[in-house]
Automatic annotation (TrEMBL), chains A, B:
It comes from the Bacteria. Keywords: DNA damage, DNA recombination, DNA repair, Metal-binding, Zinc, Zinc-finger. The lineage of its organism: Bacteria, Bacillati, Chloroflexota, Anaerolineae, Anaerolineales. May play a role in DNA repair. It seems to be involved in an RecBC-independent recombinational process of DNA repair. It may act with RecF and RecO. HAMAP family: RecR (MF_00017). One of its GO terms (molecular function) is DNA binding. Belongs to the RecR family. GO terms for biological process: DNA recombination; DNA repair. This is Recombination protein RecR. It comes from Anaerolinea thermophila (strain DSM 14523 / JCM 11388 / NBRC 100420 / UNI-1).
Length: 201, 201
């Protein structure tokens, strides 16, 4: 682009690499940074550099934790119910469920889902440590909260197969119409699921 | 948020400071950075730190240029028509107009618009250098391309008042229905403008 100095181009390109940020938004963000006091760019740069070096995976649940700690805040919290284990795909899912305030058990982060096309089998996921945690005997219910997608469903079925012999209760998050949603805007699959899963009133 | 290590919180907060990025998008971006190889975070961090120190304002048109240069690429380009001067609010507007490929003249960046409520008067903008450029005598037309907003219109009127005695042609970007737009979705003001500005077919 004529008239755009290289450092500004570089920043736009770097922003464009982030998910959901197209060329227009990337330009807007770069020019915003340019207009702001130095601290804005500096704080973001420092946070970016720190986040990878100062975090690690919890050795128990594989959620994100502060580097150098023995286990994550949730695993270390004695008030969290050990008998309920919620299995999710990645750390962002933990954050999302925590925000609801509706779950007081513990988590297990698979760090992905089964995806044969991309070569992700059970060995690439944290499934073995999950089975070992359940084998310890304190877990009574495993809530499988993988995404309601093809891969999420396949992973859920695989986990059920693996966990069934251990005699724990295995559940999956409910499917149906989203709250506040409108019937006429629901896609066909969601509507079929909502019908099939209808409950007594 | 329970379970979120401080460096991750800091990154989410830094992303949230960017325009158009809410808490959900900020979390998604931060967790994306976490999943990527170190280079992604590093390149963005370096670009952020470089952009402020390695750029400067062009002393002629006040657009962004590489620090240490005498003038910006557009001002230094002898093929750009000196007789047409497009006046914009900020450097992003230059980029947007350049992308259209429809303007081959030069620019003048005001670095803002008149806004009495925020205490921005003519002295806070690059209006004096604009008048001086026009006084040099090579400019024949000043195209005022401030935004179609209250402040943009007020700034355009002020500029017309200041430039009129200099005997140059003063124009303003056309208002009307956006291309590809649908009449029934146009807001009332746009439609009124389109009516008032109707042209012979």
């Amino acid at each position: 682009m004529a008239g755009l100095p290289a450092p500004l181009e570089a920043l736009i390109t770097a922003f464009e690499r982030l998910p959901g940020i197209g060329p227009k938004t990337a330009s807007r963000l770069a020019f915003f940074i340019l207009r702001q006091p130095d601290e804005v760019a500096q704080q973001l740069a420092e946070a970016l550099l720190a986040v990878k070096s100062q975090t690690a995976n919890c050795p128990v649940c594989f959620n994100i934790m502060l580097a150098g700690q023995e286990r994550c805040q949730i695993c270390a919290d004695p008030r969290r119910d050990e008998s309920q284990l919620c299995v999710v795909e990645d750390p962002l899912d933990v954050l999302v469920i925590e925000r609801t305030g509706g779950f007081l058990g513990r988590y297990h982060v698979l760090q992905g889902v089964l995806n044969p096309i991309e070569g992700i089998g059970p060995e690439q996921l944290r499934i073995r440590p999950l089975i070992e945690r359940v084998q310890e005997g304190r877990v009574r219910e495993v809530i499988i909260a993988t995404n309601p997608s093809m891969e999420g469903d396949a992973t859920a079925l695989y986990l059920r197969q693996q966990l069934a012999p251990l005699g724990v209760r295995i559940t999956r998050l409910a499917r149906g119409l989203p709250m506040g949603g409108d019937l006429e805007y629901a896609d066909q699959n969601t509507l079929l699921r909502a019908l099939a899963g209808r409950q007594e009133l």
